[in-house]
Amino acid sequence: MSDKVKISLGKESHEFPLIKGSENELGIDIKDLRSRTGLITYDPGYKNTGSCISDITFLDGEKGILRYRGYSIDDLANNLTFLEVAYLLIWGELPNQKELSNISNEIKKASSIDKDLEQILKSFPSKAHPMGILCSLTSALISFNPSSVDVSSNEKMFRASIELMAKFPILVSWVHRKINGLSMNKSDSKFSYTENLAQMMFKSSDDYKPNPIIIDALDKLLILHADHEQNCSTSTVRIVGSSHAGMYASISAGISALWGPLHGGANQAVIEMLEKIKADGGNTKRYLEKAKDKNDPFRLMGFGHRVYKNFDPRAKIIKKTADQVLTKLGISDPVLDIAKALEEEALNDDYFIKRKLYPNVDFYSGIIYRALGIPTEMFTVMFALGRVPGWIAQWKEMRLNKEPIGRPRQIYKGHNLRSF
Length: 420
Ligand code: CMC
What we know:
The protein is mainly α. It has helices spanning 33-37, 73-79, 82-91, 97-109, 115-122, 130-144, 154-179, 193-202, 212-224, 232-241, 247-259, 266-279, 284-292, 313-329, 334-347, 350-354, 362-371, 379-400; strands at 4-9, 12-20, 26-28, 57-60, 65-68, 71-72. The longest helix is centred in the middle third of the chain and has 26 residues, at 154-179.
């Protein structure tokens, strides 16, 4: 096969190089398309556009493959803690014991937040959505750490990553405690990263002991959400960072992008949908029909994916984990049965088969979160916490690769010059 693609325009023709990824995926390198032909490409939603070259996450949507830094998501989710996977994503290799205990200690030392930030938290109305609070608090962290991250300095980048990894769980626990009307729990250095998150969120007395079932489930969920290549929020982080905005500012923008129900907000929307079906007598067929009706805005939340045209490998792990966690905790949630019935009906329905719509990561995750005692409105906050290492890694890669400022073009279809 030729390593060039020819574009013909009238009598002229131009050749553009093919670019090949390490898993043999192919793209056309059109960096100089406009300067050579005067043309631009039109691709709403960037369905066919590669925005960068990355060595962080590999995803094959046709085969249902997901790997971080070359390791399969199954291996990572079944064998490691979230902190180990975060290290892998941010620094490129799995940590040895010394490296792991070093970042763990550094994170413990950085696990406090300026008291003034608590005042900002207090000033939010009690009905504020947790994602709105989280986003604002992350932005506010910038004012307490104003120096922009110098990406060329390993030491400064290390410190900034540690600070964010340390402070984010505190913000998450603050938001959780605030919406539940509870007082804050301080970080406790005797616990591991995930245990500390759990104690800050759930501790109600001094004799608190982390429940290994909850810690294991949290580790899995956070690992499964830790990166997903160039999705909406990560692309946001990269494009905001491409203007040389700082890492915290870029990640705060990513949190806003994640909030939407078509992206991370789907986990909240799924449980709300399942609750509605339950209240409606468990009539899954009616909702399946609504999802297929093009005149009805209703979509089957937690189904479909821009890239996966096969099972989302994260959904497979999460479904199994949901079953295990509920059994181990002795919880019976009727919504899990509704979800399973809905999945089975959709997977056997021509509409979903033809469009290759499968359950995604958000379909079963909410059922686990709720079994762990996390309220529905907090689900997307948990997703954001998991995604932090991915956002850090992607922001760093984008800056180290010296990517140019992100600035798409457009086809103008408005008025021609009008007399005033
Ligand atoms: N229910 C019913 N129909 C659907 C659904 C759905 N959930 N998803 C896609 N379709 C249909 C869509 O109407 C279209 O049909 P047609 O070809 O007849 O016009 C076809 O499938 C292709 O869909 P699309 O909207 O063009 O696909 P997209 O790649 O632009 O959107 C998506 C992907 C995830 C936004 C979409 O599948 C969706 O809205 N799903 C529900 C929300 C959801 O679960 N989001 C979480 C995504 S995974 C977590 C994350 O990483 O963000």
